[in-house]
# Entry
Amino acid sequence: MKAPCVRVERERGETTRRELAESDLIPDDLEIVVEGGWLYVPVSAPGEVPNGFEVVEHDVPTRETPDTPADILGFDPSYERLGDIVLVDEDDPARAREIADAIVASELPVKTVLNRASKVKGETRVRDWDVLVGEQTETVHREYGCEFSLDVARVYFSPRLATERHRVAEQVTPDEQAFDMFAGVGPFVIPFAKRGAQVVGTDVNDVAIDYLRENARRNGVEDRVTAIAGDVRETVSEYENWADRLVMNLPHSAGEFLDTAVALAGDDCVIHYYDIQHEDDPFGPGEKAIRAAAEPEYDVTVETRREVRSYAPHELNVCLDVRLTR
# Structure
């Protein structure tokens, strides 16, 4: 059957396959083809293939799909994977147990299955979890060629935002100075640094900052990353007028930090501002707040208005990419 494939020279095949696999871009039901000195690696989402790879249509054979949780259950359960941990979100304990048993019986490489026991809470944005299988809550998650060590019981991390993080990281240039105001374990910081930027990340969660430093070393970018534990508002004096790019990924509360963002911004700075608003006007409140904080010191230009995902009934998680020009 015809399928989108990354075409690469055979000698680069294994490196390419590994990178695509780390980003969960290789489907389980299609074979890799070797033909005429080229390797054709099927991809499930051609639009998410990193820059630098050639994507073509090519004939590839199907293969027998390993047992999945859906094969075992007879329905498609909702779950997320973080490394060798699987996260489910079920209010019914019996249904959660049924899904966990099917996940373990499937071909998924899983050591731990957790069920969400609370919403994100507190200043450090962590959850409570019910452990259904295994006991370890620490794992190594891979996305778009980066590795992130983390403990889901002690830090906040959402694998659902991988595509959005990659979208922002692709805008980063090697000569930039970037600042992530709510950095967590580094899902923005690390890919920014891998693209050659000098990056500062702050977070009130000391554990997350420890992981951020570890992840900088793990990805070989420790010389380009500064990790600071504490409230970002306490770093303004040292980094005033410093940033070419700011990430404000703290939906519900980012507006409270806009004065700090403006103080951190250099003469020409892009802010990636994340917000959660009603679907009737998802972008207006954020844009109004940014203008109120930045004007007239800066000209404010909204470059992108993007719906990231549905957050709740009639509520959207959105991003505004806004350029501030002094």
Notes: The domain at 69-136 is CATH 3.30.300.110 (GMP Synthetase; Chain A, domain 3).
